[in-house]
Description:
By secondary structure, the protein is an alpha+beta fold.
Amino acid sequence: xxxxxxxxxxxxxxxxxEFLQQLPGEMFGFVLDKGGTLKGHEFMLxxxxxAKARRRLELIYTKETFDYVPxxxxxxxxxxxxxxxxxxxxxxxxxxxxxLPRLLEELKPDYIPRSRKMLEQKxxxxxxxxxxxxxxxxxxxxFITSRxxxxxxxxxxxxxxxxxxxxxxxxxxLYNRHRNEFxxxxxxxxxxxxxxxxxxxxxxxxxxxxxxxxxxxxLNLGNGKA
Length: 226
């Protein structure tokens, strides 16, 4: 394993690193940003963004763990792709160009996730209840639905969420494949919180909880009371 490099060495190499210079300028509607910015412990090597869809793929180096990492951002959901993390810059430079089409295709708004079979068996892909819900409730807009769910971290899949992008508030509904249960989480000013108000074992039970509580919960969340 190569010895971790100082962050300044990586920053100095950024503009001349052939791997970065050869990345395509656009793919699947995502446009390349050549990066070069340091934010906290993360140095952004480059980024692909579809601003209209609120989706992006960042290629970063983190001085916290000395890793090269692809980071996904979908709405307010930001998470690392564990398949392509490495401390070896040469491995990263060799792997990412080959994996880039897959990485970006998986971020497309109409992509059905890798857990498709399990989601079909659970009835999630055919769950049309979110289509009957309002597109907006107060400052919140419906963003992800079960029509195109999002595989997330910890064996969970986002099946519905309402987001206030300006204030960083969110109510998100998920299905955990390992526990075989539905649950919800919130973000308040971009800070995640655990809740148990929407815990359910099946979709009919979740529907009842949403029908009874969604609007008042979102209005309270928007007012800082949830």
